[in-house]
Design goal:
single chain; mainly alpha; 17 helices; about 70% helix; globular
Length: about 350
């Protein structure tokens, strides 16, 4: 475990050069530094993704797991992806641990970060099933039920969800913080959150939702897990309520923006680049942001929500001056860049 901790300490380190570039571009409007900042941000994000990927490769190899089940779980878990949820969890932990975190307590949130990616992968496996979205391509590869079989895919999802909670109990932080974070995640992924959102999504097929109904569906199906990834990292560090309020705003706005972007890319995106089939929303007659307000207005909305996420961290920094400023800048840049995936 110490080896993994060291990997994350190295991968999540933000050089002072990054903070200087961020301030030059965003605080002093030196746009000639924008490209340099973009390049460095992408490098730092790749480092963090690599750390998550390296950790995922080490898990679910226990000899007590039936080999075919282990193969199916790892097949989907290691298929790639943005790894946003574990990165948000650890980044928020680092932000809230603060500038005086000489013992790097934030890295103790690692079991939760990895568990969140396991939960996300479970949800994708089950969403792709014939009884749900009936997709045959995910992250550029055949979906789990296509690569194995439907029953194995169901069990692989069950295993990932259940094992995720076992992983989270291996966190070495105050029990109160762990329990609060467990409750956040259980609520976000259960019947009140992600599972409930999937039910609403199925019920919404073949009928037109209004914008309020679509927002509720999106908040549950997509937004809940992204929001709790952010909040759980903060809760594990025992963050103050004032900080958690702003982090919740950040996560909520990121979650909505993420879904809008996904809806837009389902229409204008390249399936080869996205790693999944496009056009499925229209084929299933689903209500989406573009179907309600058009592509261009949806793009503008995504940008608005990303800007709201950025503003939430501005407010947090004012209320919590001991928060890690470098991590604040990284999270703000991550949010501001997100909307430009559709431009």
């Amino acid at each position: 475990m110490q080896k993994l901790h060291n990997l994350f300490l190295d991968s999540f380190h933000i050089p002072q050069e990054y903070a200087a570039l961020f301030e030059q571009v965003y605080l002093h409007n030196q746009q000639n530094k924008q490209e340099e900042l973009d390049t460095l941000h992408k490098k730092l994000m790749k480092q963090r993704i690599h750390a998550v990927e390296s950790t995922l490769e080490t898990i679910l190899l226990d000899s007590e797991i039936p080999p075919r089940l282990s193969d199916a779980m790892r097949y989907s878990l290691l298929a790639g992806g943005k790894r946003l949820r574990p990165i948000f969890c650890l980044s928020m932990a680092k932000l809230c641990a603060g500038i005086n975190d000489s013992k790097n307590t934030w890295v103790q949130a690692l079991p939760f970060a990895i568990a969140l990616e396991m939960i996300h992968t479970y949800s994708l496996i089950h969403d792709d099933l014939p009884a749900m979205d009936n997709d045959d391509l995910r992250r550029g590869k055949p979906t789990c039920h296509k690569a194995f079989d439907e029953a194995t895919a169901i069990l692989a999802g069950d295993g990932l969800l259940t094992d995720a909670f076992y992983f989270m109990t291996n966190c070495h932080l105050p029990a109160r913080n762990i329990l609060e974070s467990l409750q956040l995640i259980a609520k976000a992924v259960g019947s009140q959150g992600m599972v409930g959102g999937q039910m609403l999504d199925m019920e919404a097929e073949q009928r037109k939702l209004n914008l309020d109904e679509l927002c509720v569906l999106n908040a549950k199906k997509t937004g809940a897990l992204l929001q709790c990834a952010c909040l759980s990292g903060a809760s594990l560090m025992g963050a103050a309520n004032t900080a958690k309020e702003q982090i919740q705003k950040y996560g909520t706005n990121i979650g909505i923006a993420f879904q809008i972007i996904d809806d837009v890319l389902d229409i204008i995106g390249d399936s080869a680049l996205l790693g999944k089939n496009t056009g499925s929303d229209e084929a299933n007659q689903k209500s989406t942001w573009p179907s309600l307000m058009g592509i261009e207005e949806s793009k503008k909305k995504a940008l608005e929500y990303c800007n709201e996420a950025v503003n939430a961290l501005h407010d947090l920094a004012r209320a919590e001056p001991m928060a890690d400023k470098n991590e604040q800048y990284f999270l703000q840049k991550t949010a501001s860049d997100m909307a430009f995936r559709v431009y």
